[in-house]
Automatic annotation (TrEMBL):
<dbReference type="GO" id="GO:0030170">
    <property type="term" value="F:pyridoxal phosphate binding"/>
</dbReference>
<dbReference type="GO" id="GO:0009102">
    <property type="term" value="P:biotin biosynthetic process"/>
</dbReference>
<dbReference type="InterPro" id="IPR005814">
    <property type="entry name" value="Aminotrans_3"/>
</dbReference>
<dbReference type="InterPro" id="IPR015421">
    <property type="entry name" value="PyrdxlP-dep_Trfase_major"/>
</dbReference>
<dbReference type="Pfam" id="PF00202">
    <property type="entry name" value="Aminotran_3"/>
</dbReference>
<comment type="similarity">
    <text>Belongs to the class-III pyridoxal-phosphate-dependent aminotransferase family.</text>
</comment>
<dbReference type="InterPro" id="IPR015424">
    <property type="entry name" value="PyrdxlP-dep_Trfase"/>
</dbReference>
<keyword id="KW-0032">Aminotransferase</keyword>
<keyword id="KW-0808">Transferase</keyword>
<keyword id="KW-0663">Pyridoxal phosphate</keyword>
<dbReference type="GO" id="GO:0004015">
    <property type="term" value="F:adenosylmethionine-8-amino-7-oxononanoate transaminase activity"/>
</dbReference>
<protein>
    <submittedName>
        <fullName>Aminotransferase class III-fold pyridoxal phosphate-dependent enzyme</fullName>
    </submittedName>
</protein>
<dbReference type="InterPro" id="IPR015422">
    <property type="entry name" value="PyrdxlP-dep_Trfase_small"/>
</dbReference>
Length: 438
C-alpha cells in the first residue's frame, strides 16, 4: 500500500475542487476502516460525511471486501448486452426485496449522474411507447443537484453547475425550491411551512399543458445544496398532482437511498410512491461505482408491449458490472445481518440533539436535521460567500474530522454505524472550531 505523498500532484485535474488551493495545502487520505480515515501523516480522520454520502456500512466492511475480492478472481468483467451473468439478476431480485417489492425492475448504471440521465430517458421513451410522444418536457427544481450529465444539469438548479455549459436540454422548467429560513429555521424533521410550493406544478402545467410534460424529478431531501428538507405534505401533494396530470414522478434517491433517513429509502420515510427512483452511492457502500434506476412495473410493461427487438436503446458497458453487483449483494447482506437501519434509528435522537445543541454558537443561523443528516447554515462573511464554511472545513480536517461544506452550509451525513462516542467527538470539535471562525 502506498502511504507516502505522490511525487507530483500536477496532472490530476481534480473534480469539484479548488485545484490550486488544494495542491498548495493537500489533504491526502491513505486508508480507511470503520468510521475513520487515516491521512498521509498517520492521523485518524473521523468520517462525518460517509465519504461523499456513500458509505453507510462503514469503511473496509469485511464482508463487502471479501465479496469484491472473490468476484474479481472469478469474473472480472462480463457484458450485459444480449448476455448476462448470475450476479446481475440475483442483485436485481434482492433490490426488489429491499424495496419491499414496491418496484418491479431495475436498470443498472455506474453513477448517480448516469442513473438520472437514464431515468429521464426512460420517462421520455415510456410516453413515446404509449403513443404520447408530445410529452417531452422535464421538470426539475431550483437548488436541485442531479449530477453532472447534461440531463442532470438541465433539471438541476445550481447556477454554478449550469452557467458554463450553454443552453443544455431544451424544454425544461423548474419548480421553486422549498428553503425558507425566515419561517422554518431550526426545524427538526419536516418544516411546517411550504407545502403549497408543490402547487407551483399547476402553474407550470397551465403554461405548457400536461400533454407536453413527461416527468418531474426531485430529491426527496436536497442534499448537495445544503440539506433542504421538504415541508410537511409537500411530496404527497407533488405525487397527487403528477398522478392527476399523467406525469411521471422521479425521486432522486442517490443520497437518501440505503438508509440515510433511517428507512430503506426516503420514499418509505415520507410514504410517497415515486414512479422511478434513481440510486447510487450506498448501493455498493461506495466500494465500486454503481447506480441503479428502480422502475415501477407499469413503466417496464409499456416497453415489453413493443414489437419484438431491443426494447430500450440505452445502456453502459459497465451496466451490472460483476464486481459492482458482488459489492452490492454483500452490502444488502450487511444491512440485514448487522441491522444497519436499526442502529441508525437508535442513534438518530442523540444525533439530532447533538446537532441542535449548536444553536446559539457564533455564526449559526439555521440548523436542519432529518435521519442521519444535518445542515448547519452559517452567516456568510460579507463579500466572501462560502469562505466561512470553507475555513471550518479546513480547520475540522486539521483537527481530525471530515465534514462537507456547500456554500456556507455544513452538511453532515455520517456512516450509519456511527456511535455516541463518534457523535461526541464530531460535535465537540465542531463547537470549538465554530468559536474560532472569523
Ligand atoms: C441527488 C443526487 N443525484 C445525483 C448525484 C450524482 O451522483 P454521481 O456523483 O455518482 O454521478 C448526486 C451526487 O451527489 C446526488 O446527490
Amino acid at each position: 500500500m502506498n502511504e507516502s505523498r505522490p511525487a507530483s500532484m500536477n496532472s490530476f485535474w481534480m473534480p469539484f475542487t479548488n485545484n490550486r488551493d488544494f495542491k498548495a495545502n493537500p489533504r491526502l487520505l491513505v486508508s480507511a476502516e470503520g468510521v475513520y480515515y487515516k491521512d498521509v501523516d498517520g492521523n485518524p480522520i473521523l468520517d462525518g460525511t460517509a465519504g461523499l454520502w456513500c458509505v453507510p456500512c462503514g469503511h473496509a466492511q469485511p464482508k463487502i471486501v471479501a465479496a469484491v475480492r472473490e468476484m474479481i478472481g472469478q469474473l472480472d468483467f462480463a457484458p450485459t448486452f444480449q448476455m448476462g451473468h448470475p450476479a446481475a439478476f440475483d442483485l436485481a431480485e434482492k433490490l426488489m426485496e429491499y424495496s419491499n417489492h414496491r418496484f418491479g425492475h431495475v436498470f443498472y448504471t455506474n453513477s448517480g449522474s448516469e442513473a438520472v440521465d437514464t431515468a429521464l430517458k426512460i420517462a421520455l421513451a415510456y410516453h413515446k411507447a404509449r403513443g404520447e410522444a408530445s410529452r417531452t418536457r422535464l421538470i426539475g427544481r431550483e437548488r436541485a443537484y442531479h449530477g453532472v450529465g447534461f440531463g442532470g444539469i438541465s433539471v438541476g438548479g445550481i447556477a454554478g453547475n449550469r452557467k458554463p455549459y450553454g443552453v443544455m436540454l431544451p424544454g425544461v422548467d423548474h419548480l421553486p425550491h422549498t428553503h425558507n429560513p425566515e419561517k422554518n429555521a431550526f426545524t427538526r424533521g419536516e418544516p411546517e411551512h411550504g407545502m403549497n410550493l408543490a402547487d407551483e406544478l399547476e402553474r407550470i402545467v397551465a403554461l405548457h399543458d400536461a400533454s407536453t410534460i413527461a416527468a418531474v424529478i426531485v430529491e426527496p431531501v436536497a442534499g448537495s445544496t445544503g440539506v433542504l428538507v421538504p415541508p410537511k405534505g409537500y411530496l404527497k401533494r407533488l405525487r397527487e398532482l403528477c398522478t392527476k396530470h399523467g406525469i411521471l414522478l422521479i425521486f432522486d434517491e442517490v443520497i437518501t437511498g440505503f438508509g440515510r433517513l433511517t428507512t430503506p429509502f426516503a420514499s418509505d420515510y415520507f410514504d410517497v410512491e415515486p414512479d422511478m427512483m434513481t440510486t447510487a452511492k450506498g448501493l455498493t457502500n461506495g466500494v465500486i461505482p454503481m447506480g441503479a434506476v428502480f422502475s415501477k412495473k407499469f413503466i417496464h410493461d409499456a416497453f415489453m408491449e413493443a414489437p419484438p427487438g431491443i426494447e430500450l436503446f440505452h445502456g453502459y458497458t459497465y451496466s451490472g458490472h460483476p464486481v459492482a453487483c458482488a459489492a452490492s449483494l454483500a452490502t444488502l447482506e450487511v444491512f440485514r445481518e448487522q441491522n444497519i437501519l436499526d442502529n441508525a434509528k437508535a442513534i438518530q435522537p442523540y444525533w439530532e440533539d447533538a446537532v441542535h445543541a449548536l444553536k446559539g454558537l457564533p455564526h449559526v443561523i439555521d440548523i436542519r436535521t432529518i435521519g442521519l443528516v444535518a445542515g448547519i447554515e452559517l452567516a456568510p462573511i460579507a463579500g466572501k460567500p462560502g469562505a466561512r464554511a470553507y475555513a471550518a472545513f479546513k480547520k475540522m480536517f486539521a483537527d481530525g474530522v471530515l465534514i462537507r461544506v456547500t456554500g456556507d452550509i455544513i452538511a453532515l451525513s455520517p456512516p450509519l454505524t456511527f456511535e455516541k462516542k463518534h457523535i461526541d467527538e464530531l460535535f465537540g470539535k465542531l463547537t470549538t472550531v465554530l468559536k474560532t471562525l472569523e
